[in-house]
Design a protein that fits this description.
The structure holds 2 protein chains of 2 kinds. Chain A is mostly helical. Chain A contains 5 helices and 1 strand. In chain A, helix 3 packs antiparallel against helix 4 and helix 4 packs across helix 5. The two termini of chain A are about 15 Å apart. By secondary structure, chain B is mainly alpha-helical. Chain B is about 85% helix and about 0% strand. Classes of the chains: A mainly alpha, B mainly alpha.
Chain lengths: ~140, ~120
């Protein structure tokens, strides 16, 4: 299966949907910082992988897919849920990458912080894409 | 106060950027990888490193592994609720939050204790 970029899909997103994501992302980052300062880094670190934006994203995916089908005169309820389920299945694999990101931060930050951030991001994408490819082959 | 304002801006930008990438990528199963992007982690860790130092960030990274295990469990349950039980995305994603709390906090307590 070929991966490609479809920038025109961004036109389907309404302006307020971008605002909601920005606000949710910003709010969750503030909350994660507050939890770490209140309860310490052990509890605070957990919230770096909290599914803050996921409910809003999945709801948008279902809504857009349903509207697309209904515009074509079809019932889009089932298709909307399937599209959101596919996104959630991708997030399971992405979570493996996120665990790899966290391991690199844990092991390398004290040696070189900037290098650890770069390598952790590379580890996230490498592990997530590898898991996705394995899932395609099975 | 300024620190929290910076966190808000950095988190908003990081989450929006990864979400936009996820919107534009196809197929959808691949785009779903970006539902678990390290957006909040990157925004938080950059500020944490400058404020609290590398040792503090390393402990956060160690805990984040359990958070990621929680996220994998959460996403799997959401997928199951949507495919098998045909509930709405809103109901599936919000009700499954308890799975994240149970797995992340449970694994953290089991491995790291209350420290």
């Amino acid at each position: 299966m070929i991966v490609w970029l479809n920038p025109s899909a961004l036109r389907d997103i309404r302006w307020y949907e971008y605002v909601v994501r920005f606000a949710l992302g910003g709010a969750m980052t503030v909350i994660a910082g507050f939890i770490a300062s209140r309860f310490g880094p052990v509890i605070g670190g957990l919230f770096l992988a909290f599914p803050a934006i996921f409910p809003a994203s999945a709801t948008l995916i279902e809504k857009h897919e349903r509207e697309r089908k209904e515009k074509a005169g079809l019932s889009g309820a089932r298709r909307g849920k399937e599209a959101a389920a596919l996104d959630a299945a991708g997030a399971v694999l992405g979570s493996l990458g996120l665990a790899a990101f966290a391991i690199v931060i844990w092991l390398l930050t004290e040696q070189s912080a900037s290098l650890a951030l770069v390598l952790a991001t590379a580890a996230w994408i490498a592990v997530a894409v590898f898991a996705w490819l394995v899932r395609q082959w099975l | 106060m300024l620190e929290y304002f910076l966190r808000f801006i950095a988190g908003g930008i990081a989450v929006s950027a990864f979400a936009a990438l996820g919107d534009a990528l196809r197929p959808k199963s691949f785009a779903g990888l970006f539902g678990a992007a390290p957006s909040i982690a990157l925004a938080t860790l950059v500020i944490t490193l400058s404020k609290d130092g590398a040792g503090y960030a390393a402990v956060e990274g160690r805990s984040m592994i359990m958070g990621a295990v929680g996220l994998a469990s959460y996403s799997w349950v959401v997928c199951l609720l949507l495919k098998k039980f045909m509930v709405t995305s809103r109901a599936a994603t919000l009700s499954a939050i308890v799975v994240w709390f149970a797995v992340a906090l449970g694994a953290s307590a089991a491995l790291f204790g209350a420290s």
